[in-house]
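Hey, can you fold this one?
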Amino acid sequence: MSDHYPLYIALRGLMVRAAPAMQIGKDALGEFTLNVARDIMNSKDPVWFGSVRMSGNNVSYYLPPLAAREGRDLIVPEGLKRLSTSKTCFVFHDQNADRFAELEDLTRAAADKFAGATRAA
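Sure. Predicted structure:
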């Protein structure tokens, strides 16, 4: 098992706490995915909300709502921007309480905006 498994578990827990209305799409060793709840999207097919993945010497945290219409106005803190590889992916090599707090706030805001916007549509 990877030395980054505790980091993966911490980021997985963060995503679950920050987006409790979302549904687990996949929960396998080293890969966790949340989908938008079907009652929020009124969709028969799952819509991807986020993922946490272990790979090599890091853990990636994906948050697709940041690129969606509903999340485009969310502000990514500078500390998180330094960890980003794209608009929606943040790569972690270690646990950092400040970055985790920023990420949890951002994930919660994305979940709230995504759910609110899709319910209003």
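The mean pLDDT is 89. Let me know if you want another pass with a different chain boundary.
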